[in-house]
Amino acid sequence: MEARPVDRYLENLRGEQDGAALYDAVAASEENPKLAELYRRLAAAERRHAGIWAEKLKSEGVEAPAYKPSARTRLLAWLARRGGAKFVLPSIFALEQADRDKYDTQPDARAAGMPADEHSHARLLGHIQRSGGGMPGAEVARLEGRHRAFGGNALRAAVLGANDGLVSNLALVMGVAGAALQSRTILITGLAGLLAGSFSMALGEWLSVQSSRELYEHQIRTEAAEIEASPEEEAEELALIYQARGLEKRESEALARRILQDPKGALDVMTREELGIDPSQLGGSPWVAAFASFALFATGALIPVLPFLFATGTRAIAVSLAISALGLFGLGAGITLFTARPAVRSGLRSVLFGLVAAGGTWAIGRLIGVTVAG
Predict the structure, then answer these.
(1) Are 249 and 180 in a shared domain?
(2) Which of 192, 242, 271, 351 could form a disulfide with 247 if both were Cys (CB 3.0 to 4.6 A apart)?
């Protein structure tokens, strides 16, 4: 049995306060007034939960400390202000998913109905992320799927792209350094690795996005033919989609029939609702994706090479390892925006894996260098 649950109360209080602050920031940056109001209601629910934990602390003779936002909350709020609500929605959804079961085993939280609230929040955010709105009635048909097109997915890609560049080029640079080659040779090899990896990533991203666009275009043409040939069946499918989202059968069928009266509008809605495709974007521009992939990989790959522009020998290698470790820590901590894991632990894990890869290639380079020299 728990002796004094003060630590748990404090942890729960901080979590609810962070949630309220984050929802307030997202509400302030949301352009859709209906969604902004929904986020404000979520913030109010978090504050209500925080009040319960503050009272629990008071019953234990502990005064609730002054609220100070966590580093993750401050960063996500800043990103929401700069990039809008859609930019951080996937990250918030990941946090809600991670915390949805945290109260299931806490009797005092269950007595206050908190588990149901947390599960409801996670479902609601998932619905908003999938549909771009989550509002009932005709509003569902008009809302855009804009939350899926950008946001946390782009931020996640940025972190992972830079991480790939850093780890791969750090391993390459250390492998060449292990072979005891001159600093000039290491620099040229590192820059060559940067360019080769960046071009490879850019080409791969271009092909991936372009292939997706072509697939989406084919699916949209197929959907258009089905609407023209069997409008009643398409109306039935659309009605079932809305029923699955909680609308009444009669309301769903009436809404679907109204939508199918306009073939062009029906194609747009069916493309979004049935195929999950935003017809205005089709997965984005392959050229933008290629350029972004090139830039992100190159940014990470440049880090281990930089010291060899200004230093030589052991000093350049040591500085390269040091700044690469810092970069790995930052990127590892950054990915916790989506995993909801402790930032320090994830950062140190990223450093460990990156340095193990560098150490392995250094040892192989050393062995090859000794063998060739011998």
Answers:
(1) no
(2) 242
Q: Is 114 helix (H, G, I), strand (E, B) or coil?
A: helix
Angle at which helices 313-334 and 152-178 cross, to 10°: 160
- What local confidence, expressed as pLDDT, does residue 307 receive? 94
Q: Which of 111-120, 139-148, 188-197, 256-265 has the highest mean pLDDT?
A: 188-197
- 261-304 per-position pLDDT tens digit: 777 777 777 777 666 667 666 667 788 888 888 999 999 999 99
Instruction: Give 120's contacts (C-beta < 8 A, 6+ positions apart).
Output: none
Statement to judge: residues 254 and 368 lie in one domain? no
C-beta contacts of 334-337 below 8 A and 24+ residues apart: 334/159, 335/156, 335/159, 335/160, 335/163, 336/72, 337/72, 337/75, 337/76, 337/91, 337/94, 337/152, 337/155
Cα 7 from Cα 5, distance rounded (Å)? 6
CB 198 within 8 A of CB 165: yes
Q: Which amino acid is at 342?
A: P
Helix (H/G/I), strand (E/B), else coil: 221:
helix
pLDDT number for residue 189 = 92
Give pLDDT, residue 169. Answer: 92
- Shared domain for 290 and 250, answered yes or no, is no
